[in-house]
Automatic annotation (TrEMBL):
It holds the Pfam family PQQ_2. InterPro entries: PQQ_b-propeller_rpt, PQQ_rpt_dom, Quinoprotein_ADH-like_sf, WD40/YVTN_repeat-like_dom_sf. It comes from Natrinema thermotolerans. Gene3D superfamilies: YVTN repeat-like/Quinoprotein amine dehydrogenase (2.130.10.10). Residues 52-232 form the Pyrrolo-quinoline quinone repeat domain. This is PQQ-like beta-propeller repeat protein.
Amino acid sequence: MTGTVDAEREDALDVRTAPLGEIEPARSRHMWTRSAVAVAESGDLVVTGEWDGTVTAREADSLEARWTVDHPDHAVGIASLGGDGAGDDETVVVAGRGETGTIAAYDAATGDRRWRYDTAADVGEAVKDTVFYLPYVVACETGTDADGNERVYAAARRYERDGDRRQWHSTVYAFDSAGSVRWTYETDASPIALDPSADGERLAVGYNRCMGDHDTGLVVLGAETGDLEWTWDPGTEGDRRVGDVSFDGDSIAVSSHGDKRGYLLGPGGAERWSVDLAVETEIDGETLYAYPNHVYADDGRIAFVTGNTYAVESRETESRHPNEHRVAAFDAGGNPLWDDDVRGFVHGLAADGDRLVTPCAQNFRVRDPDTHAVRRFDLESGPVGVERLEGIATAAAVRDGTLAAIEEPVAYHDDGETRGEYALRVGSLE
């Protein structure tokens, strides 16, 4: 973050920087997830995960390193568990992508490893030495069940292809705070998102690709037992189903990859409403669409974020979908609240109550460096501020007034210039 904002928006944040070393620059098209960042529940610690497996915990105020460890895999997801609010007994949970697909928990104060679980034992080992075939812990969330027990929920998947046969292997896990597996839920589909309900009774699992026996985009499990409670699907043809899920009370907001709409579901999967987000649209003789990749719901307000433009008949397109790279918010009745451009590809949302943060990376069809930014929104009223980056923003976290983001360097294929650096950027919102 450079500290500049759009003229009509709030004053610049006070931003602190910690270099993260070297990483291969991203290219014109957005790359896979290579970095992760989290603000610990205590609020005084920022934790980063890097593609080489380095995990570092830093003091939020000074960015001085408290500890550094080597995770067994690429460190691509981080969550925080437990503690007394002052950092005592808090645990940092790291999700990996690599040969073992490791989930490991580290003492937040010392970095000592408390437990480790290798998901490759369940989803299998990679059959090809490429990143897309590696076991991947694609989602990791923490919370408490209905009895107040601390839980770590995770989803791991592995892909393989043999000729025309494509197959996914996946497992959803519930761990207790000591790392013991409480239950698992296995399918032959590709999970993409998890969200536990605030009351600790249910866990929503979104499946992005369904090309086997498992043929539904949303599964709701009992958080205590892992038993299947109900399912929902957009009912569309093909294997694309759900992009993201978010609980809000007894409702679940769903971004649909199947029909490119947003849904709010009630108990049992009853559809309360749906909205067109980036549905197929005819422009200059092309049928274009964009995937709704993310959703966040809180206190009767729901925000959806769309991604890149694609054409039905070809990989390339001369035009852009009018709703690509856009955030749109609605109230509990499905009425529009506001919408705004995010301008580039968003790897994942960060949210805390009514604060919503989008780390924006490439808009590969336009290749405009002005799209590189961390954009902030109020869930009720819309845009708040923009912190611009020379490189691309690929991960962000927000908690208790602390905003953290990862910048990665980028080199567009048609200008030869490398922009930005590999660095942690931290700002104070209060």
